[in-house]
DNA sequence: CTGGGTGCAAAGGCTTTGCAGTGGT
DNA sequence: ACCACTGCAAAGCCTTTGCACCCAG
């Protein structure tokens, strides 16, 4: 599905700004912060405003077109929701690479919580550390 | 172990501010944001400054006396690291209650990452949703 | 044409930092 | 006495908001 169709399907207007935001996220191999996204959108569509980015991140998130990943030290990271389905991220503190992982802890936890009467709506699971490449650079065994 | 000993053991000076911060966190049944903590510390030790809180949250965190939990919409929550050991939180979006859970996804994931050459240093796992009490209030089945 | 969407500018909130002074050890 | 620690005030950063204009449907 292309970007225009994604937006229309969610009953959102197709504006150049939204197309730029989704294009950047689509092309990006890793997850992006709002500010990183903003800088990249500017290259694609100069003149785009801060607030447009923020407003649209909220909108696109609420329509389920994006995922949000809380960052280790404040702020959030965003990624486009691809068809591959639900996954989580292992993030290298050295190079910032975010490695997607299929494993989801909720598979184990869901039934336990159900017994308890708790209905989960969202969850976050991220792992931080060093990838093999960065371990070598930092000379960590 | 009492608070003074905790600080000394970490080679930190025992100041009234630090004692107040740890006391508040010790007494608190749920996790607190920096600002919530600040307000409560003020009652215990009026005149304490913002920056003292923030600086000490960093310090205490780096010495392993605290845990940090990324909040759903920006900011972090803090809790004192108790002896009970590692756990995670299920947080009710209705009443804010944070229910500790022993389950940790890293038990499953650790060996997979090791094969991959990735060394995890930190991880976050939180679940958000509605507890049974709040479901009734919100009239959600 | 009509409301959702955008740009602009300003405010807001939380957090960090520099500096001088204080207090723990 | 020394240096970690604190208070204060200011700056910093990211994010949100109000308002007028604009353009996609």
From TrEMBL, chains A, B:
Alphabetical GO biological process terms: negative regulation of DNA-templated transcription; regulation of secondary metabolite biosynthetic process
Residues that coordinate or bind Zn(2+): 92, 95, 131, 134
Organism: Biomaibacter acetigenes
Transmembrane segments: none
Cofactors: Zn(2+); Mn(2+); Fe(2+)
Record flagged with keyword GTP-binding: no
Protein name: Transcriptional repressor
Gene3D superfamilies tied to this protein: 3.30.1490.190, Winged helix-like DNA-binding domain superfamily/Winged helix DNA-binding domain (1.10.10.10)
Keyword Transport: no
Domain of life of the organism encoding this protein: Bacteria
Cofactor binding mode and count: Binds 1 zinc ion per subunit. Binds 1 Mn(2+) or Fe(2+) ion per subunit.
Keywords (A to Z) from UniProt: DNA-binding, Iron, Metal-binding, Repressor, Transcription, Transcription regulation, Zinc
CDD domains: Fur_like
């Amino acid at each position: 599905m292309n970007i225009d169709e994604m937006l229309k399907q969610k009953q959102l207007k197709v504006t150049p700004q939204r197309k730029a935001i989704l294009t950047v996220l689509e092309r990006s191999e890793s997850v992006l912060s709002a500010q990183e996204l903003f800088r990249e959108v500017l290259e694609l569509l100069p003149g785009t405003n801060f607030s447009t980015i923020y407003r649209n991140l909220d909108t696109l998130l609420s329509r389920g077109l994006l995922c949000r990943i809380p960052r280790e030290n404040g702020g959030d990271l965003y990624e486009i929701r691809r068809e591959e389905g639900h996954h989580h991220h292992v993030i290298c503190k050295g190079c910032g690479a975010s490695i997607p992982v299929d494993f989801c802890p909720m598979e184990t936890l869901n039934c336990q919580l159900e017994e308890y009467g708790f209905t989960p709506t969202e969850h976050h699971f991220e792992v931080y550390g060093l990838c093999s490449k960065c371990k070598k650079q930092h000379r960590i065994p």
